[in-house]
Amino acid sequence: MAGTDPAAAWAGEPEQGAPGEEGVPGDRAARRASTPGRASARDTARVALRVGLPTLAGGVVVRRKQGMALATRIDADRHAVELLNELRSRYGPGPLHLRLAGRNVALPLSAEDAQRVLDETPEPFTPAARLKRDALGHFQPHGVLISTGQERDERRAFNEDVLETGRHLHHLAPQFVRTVREEADGLLAEARAQGSGRLDWGTFGAAWWRTVRRVVLGDAARDDTTLTDRLGRLRGFGNWSALVPTRATAGPRERFQQGLRAHLDRAEPGSLAEALARTPAKPGVDPVGQVPHWLFAFDAAGIAAARTLALLATHPAQEQQVRNELAIPELTRPQLLPYTRACVMESVRLWPTTPFLLRESTRETRWGEGTLPEGTAFLVYAPYFHRDGSAPYGDRFVPEIWLDGTAHTGPELVPFSAGPGVCPGEDLVLLVTSTLVAALMERHDFRLHSPDGLRTDQPLPYTLNHFALRFSAAARP
What we know:
With 477 residues, the protein is an alpha+beta fold. The chain has helices spanning 28-32, 41-58, 65-73, 76-91, 111-119, 130-136, 149-163, 173-193, 201-217, 225-238, 250-266, 272-278, 291-314, 316-326, 338-350, 382-386, 426-441; strands at 37-38, 96-100, 103-107, 125-126, 198-200, 356-361, 365-367, 370-372, 377-381, 444-450, 470-475. 47% of the residues lie in helices and 10% in strands.
C-alpha cells in the first residue's frame, strides 16, 4: 500500500554484489555509477529550506491542512525540482551528499541511482531507517516497514499473503467492489441533500474512511470514527518523529490497539480482517500489528482518488475515455477498469502521496570513484523523478503512459515505490480507488470549483492541496 513509503516495504530480496575492487561492498553497477558530489554549506541550507521544510510542513505521516495550503500557494514542489535540477548541473548526476543535523544524507539525482537504492532493499539499503522508526513507532511499532532481518522477511511474507500481492483482483474483490459502490451512492446522496450537489474534502474524506473501515475491518466498523481518529492523533505525533518519544504515546497507542483488536477478533466475513484471521503467521509476525499500516496507507489512497476526480472534472478528453469504459455492459466490462486505474496512477505521478522514499545504508557503499558511509539516509524525492522536465508529458495529465508502456521506459516513476520494497497492496489500492472514481462518475457529471489551476491549456501545478478541493455533482440525463 501507499503511505510513508505509500506510503512500501515488502517482497523478495535481490542477490547482493561481490565486494568492490578496494574492499568496499559494491558491484559493477556501483562502480559504473557517478561519484557523489559534496554539497556546500550554502546549498545544503537551500535543500533543507526548499526541499525538506515544505515537505515537513505539509506533514509526512499525516497531512497538515495549513502546511498543505502554504505549500500549494508557493507551488513548493516546483521550486524543489528546479533546485535539484540546478544542483545536478553543478555537482553532476551522482548522489548529492549533504550533512544535515549531524547526519549523512544522500539525494539521488539520476534514475539509475534511485533505482539502485530501491532495488537493493533491504540490504544494504534498509527501509527501517531511524527517522522512519521514530515516526511510525507511535502507531505501528511492529509494522513490516520498520522491521529488519528475519522479522521483516516473515512480516513481509504475511502481508503479501493477506493482501495477495501480485494478483490484480483479490479473492474478496466482489465484496470490496459492492462496499465501495454502496459508499459512493451514500456520498452522492449526501451531496444532493445539501441542495446544490456540493462536495468538499470533508465530505469526501469521511465517506472514504467509512469505505476503508468496511474493507479492512468489516461492516460493523463502518461508523467507528473513534478508532481512526485515535490513529490520526498517533500519526500526528509521528509527524514530529524523534521530538516525541514513542514512550510518551504508549497510553493512546494501547487504546487504539484495543479498539483495533476488537474489530479484528470478529474477523467479519468479506473483510481483510477475515483474510488475516485465515492466514497462518509465524510467532514473531504479530498479525494485528500489521493492520495499522494498511489503514495508514489507505489514507493516502483517498487523497489520490479525490485528485483523480479533480483531474477528470477538468480534462474532457480523459473524462470521455473513462465514460467509454463505463459504457461497456457490466457483464462484459473489464473488472480492473484499466483506463480509470491508469488515471489514478497518473494522479499519483503528478502529486506523489509519498514525496520521500527513505532508505538507510547498513554499510559503506561504493558510488563510482567514491563511497558513502554506513548510516547514510538516502532520500529518493519522487516529485523530482516524476516531473524533472525530461519527459514531454511531465506536467500534463496523460493516463495513456500507464497503458502503452511509456511509464516503464522513461524517468524513474515510483508512485508505489519500486524494487523489493514496492507497495504490496498496490493492486488492492488501485481496485478500491478506481472503483470509487468509476462509481461516482457512472451517472454523474462533476465540476471542479476549487482550485482553479487545473487546466488543459497550461502545465499542471506541482503541488495540489486536496483539502481545498470543491466539486459539484449533477445527475446525468
